[in-house]
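Two folds, back to back.
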Amino acid sequence: MHRILLFIIFSSTLYANTGKISGKVTDVKSGDPLAGVNVFLEGTPYGAATDQDGEYIILNIPLGNYTLRASYIGYTSYRVENIRISLDRTTHQNFILTEAVIEGE
């Protein structure tokens, strides 16, 4: 019983100093949401893919400043530096992506 209680206390402490980030990714020309875009914090294992509405959420991020990147095949990758993750807060960051020009052979 004591081990279970210690595990619960440790688990809650582990995630106590975290925040989250969310936003929406859209196409610059049409304004349509983009599904399946990879949004991630560079140099970390934290990331998510956008849903059918172009929305993403990344949970349980340790506090600090990060570089956030949105990457999608056929579009230019976009990054935002100095994204601040604060205690028990949701940081919002939207992306508007531009189609990449792919040169032929």
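---
second:
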Amino acid sequence: PLFELETDNIAMRLSNDLRIEEVSVRRSLPHTLDITIKERQPIATIVCDYGYLDLDKSGKILDSYKNLKTMQIPMISGATVHDKYIGDDVDDKLVKVILDFLQKINADTINKLSEIAIISEDYIVAYTNTERSVQIRIGKLERLDEKARLVEDFLKNLDSNPNPIEYVDFNYTAPFIKLAR
């Protein structure tokens, strides 16, 4: 009974599932119902009162755990979430901007970052988990599109760079690279 199904009702019920980010339900005549689902993916981990939380790009909490698992996504340090559980949204503006920044970076680049540290409201630093760990000074969270592109380019070329790098600073319009001695 294809015509007895209400596609809007099915889409609404599926969108209430925490694991689903987007859903589309359509009839494909004569006898098919097409359901397209986009799953939520964790993009960062943050410390909370009772352990750690995994967040998606919008700040929705997808998972919680007491002990730190293997780090496949970067940890946001310098901010702590209080009284939040799976399914809740993180309201901290600075964390939201960092998630927005991470959303602009491709998945391969995100996997090369181990931590995004909030030093102060105007100073953000990222650290790589590559063989030669490098500090990436992002600075103020402005010009996010440009800085995300620069971080991607830098990390893509980091493995082929023969010089040891202490840090790279994206605070300026032209990035500054400090070589290690």
